[in-house]
Amino acid sequence: MLKNIQEVKNYLYSLIPIEGGRGIFRISQVLKKLNNPQDSFKSIHITGTSGKSSTAYLISAILKQAGYKVGLFISPHLQDIRERIQINNQPISQKDFADLIKSQKIRLSYFETLAAIAFAYFAKNKIDFGVIEVACGARTDPTNILKSEIAIITNIGLDHQNLLGKTKKEILENKMAIIKSSCDYVILPKKHDFQTKNHLIKSNYSRFDFYNSEKIIKDIKLTMPGIFQVENAGIAIAACLKLGVTKNIIKNTLAKVFFPGRLEIIKNNIILDGAHNPDKIKALVNSLKIIYPDQKFVTIFAVKKGKAAKKMLKLLAKISSKIIITEFSEQTDLADKFKLKAHDLFNQVKAKNIICQPNFKKALENAQKQENLILITGSLYLAGETKKYLC
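RESULT FIELD:
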């Protein structure tokens, strides 16, 4: 019997070796016993290589401001596993989380379990909309059991190629499986769906215009900095306009929204970003070049196994005077099992401005000896560990 929240987390970690069901069959059996809670609310289903969580968060914030009760299911989390399941931007309570885990009768995979309890929690609380992020791809993702109101495909890049395909075209085809015959959609690669025009990119906000075939929204302030966040906001705006949300509600929400771990400034001189694939790192680097022209960073970097770490380091080298390769050390879902050892990566990429310090706290102490701004990136696990340590 699971007695407390830590035992619940340990139980979930024990499910990590269990492979997913390669489709929706296994989770559908569980949800059927729960009277198919996923059918009790309208869902916005989001896939893509980059920008899924930010886009989901923006949509949920806008819909909440519009007066709806909104469920949000995202992954991974930054600091607390309960961040993955929220209603009106409030994480599920420890009691509800534990009770729903204990109620599971069929042993599912880690992600299947979280998806099942999210749907049950949302149904129990009678939400209006569920904003649901896939785990990986779409075709065989457990969330593809949804009958979506709107399907969204964000930026497409090369990631999880062993599962989704070798080319961007193959990956896009996999992700397009979330588009059902009965749903509307927003697809970022289709440039005619909408356009954004940047006016200003600062360290703590951006300003841009939004255009589509029906609406023009001028001078939008977005308090989530970065070029890539303007793109994510464009997707969120396009989706919310399809749902009838007004321009004023959209503008008012975006002017005050905040999503931690994404180009977040802490302690005045430390920039935190959970970018964890080459496309995300490239977008981060491009944004930092605009926000901090001619600035060089001391970069602390850690990454999971299986990621294109050398490509990421090559991109980061363009804005870094020094790169410190480290590791995230805490047991946070897949982090401990799948982290890439700092020495293993260092031995692959030896260069004069790259050093290795597996202990994150010592890596940070080293970085703080310099006068440069500090950039911490490569993984949301590392971002979460940084916030626990410094905030």
